[in-house]
Amino acid sequence: MAQQSRDALRRRRKRVLLLVLVALVLLVSPLFALSMGSPAGSPAPARVVVGPGDTLWDLAKEYGPPNADLRQVVREMRETNGLDGSLIRPGQVLLIETE
Q1: Which CATH number fits the domain that encloses residue 62?
Q2: Which ranges of 1-99 would DSSP assign to H, the alpha helix?
Q3: pLDDT for the residue 51
Q4: Domain of 28?
Q5: Same domain, 74 and 57
Q6: Regarding beta strands 46-49 and 93-96, do their DSSP bridges make them parallel or antiparallel, or are they unpaired?
Q7: What is the distance, to the nearest Å, from the Cα of residue 75 to the centroid of all Cα atoms in its chain?
Q8: Are residues 54 and 81 in the same domain?
């Protein structure tokens, strides 16, 4: 009888330890991911509010990487922001890779 209660106690301890480990992993994983941020050398994209008269080409020229092919920058802007065409509206917020 005493042996059974010791075995039950061991099983219970193992379950508790396993639950604690799982909880720690679940709590620490998001914190670790947040601390990673963007990869070194890859700054976060600029958030740009479209003004009256702005075009994708103008914004690519102003905010895009220096000496970049503007056609490629515009193409990436369209992909990043889910744009089907080149139509943008004042007040719209766009993400633009700066490097």
Answers
A1: 3.10.350.10
A2: 2-36, 56-63, 70-81
A3: 95
A4: 1-37
A5: yes
A6: antiparallel
A7: 20
A8: yes
CB 97 within 8 A of CB 76: yes
> Same structural domain for residues 5 and 25?
yes
Q: Give, in degrees to the nearest 5, the angle at Cα 52 between 61 and 74.
A: 30
Structure token pair of residue 40: 């070194």
Half-sphere exposure for 85 (CA within 13 Å, toward CB): 3
On whether both 9 and 31 belong to a single domain, the answer is yes
* pLDDT tens sequence across 37-95: 555 556 678 899 999 999 999 999 998 888 889 999 999 999 999 999 989 999 999 98
> How do residues 10-45 score in pLDDT, each as one tens digit?
999 999 888 888 877 777 777 665 555 555 556 678
